[in-house]
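On clarity, I found the account of how folds are encoded harder to follow than it need be. For illustration, here is how one protein appears when written out as sequence plus structure tokens.
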Amino acid sequence: MAALRVVALAACVAAAVAVSYFMRENVPPWTIAVCAVAFVAAFLLGRRMEPGWPTFLFLAGGLLELTALIVVGLAVALPWFLGRVAYQQAALAATGVEAAHLRERTRIAHEVHDTLGHELSLLALQAGALEMNLPPEHQADAAQLRMTAAAATERLADLVFLLRDGDPPAVADLQDLVDRAVASGMRVEFTVEGRTPSTVERTVHRVVQEALTNAAKHAPKSVVLLKVSTADATTVVEAGNDAGLRRGAGSRLGLIALRERVRLAGGTLRTSRGDGRFELVATLPHSGEL
């Protein structure tokens, strides 16, 4: 009889451990607690039984108790399990719909970026180059066209950023901007060191765009040296080209607006002219927010 009680206790413990392991994330804690109390009660009852009781009565009582536990467990667990399945199916369906919406928004963002974004960037570059070749009475109009195209490009970048619901790849965007400049006839040497964080990547894009625009306007035949380096929680944009001989109307307005944009991002913009070269250096700490 003692051996039988030990075997029964071991079976109860094994069952409790199995239930706790395989369904530990789904079964409410109170269910396991009720089962544990029932198992302990059964063990104590068996321990206090008189040795003269027939074994079949002990087994019958145990089976009756086990049957009652199964019935009660099914009555409680089955509705909970069905509700859990329904909840998971609804969550999966909602996730699928949201994923479809995100894919569609990403597709639209790519189309807008690949069409309007590219053309507006090229328009700003070409307007800057055209400004230097116009009579003085028309240079102000060309400067206004360049600034308007640059502002439209910036607003479009903000829209694409919202549609994508994430951070666009800064290196790919910058390389695409440089490729557009090269396609328009400019000579550009572009290098990237490190990964630009999302907090400053749009400002970096704006700095590179203005550097290319200035080079196209003042020194269209010069080789433009561009470098974007990220280290020690700071991103530095360096641009250099021949200084050129003339300055058109509105030539300083773009740099003034760019200096303000960099300041709002928590950084500094430094420009210098000497030895026939024009240098631009923008320093952007990663703690700055756009």
The chain has two domains: 2-96, 111-285. The chain has a mean pLDDT of 73. DSSP finds seven helices and five strands in the chain.
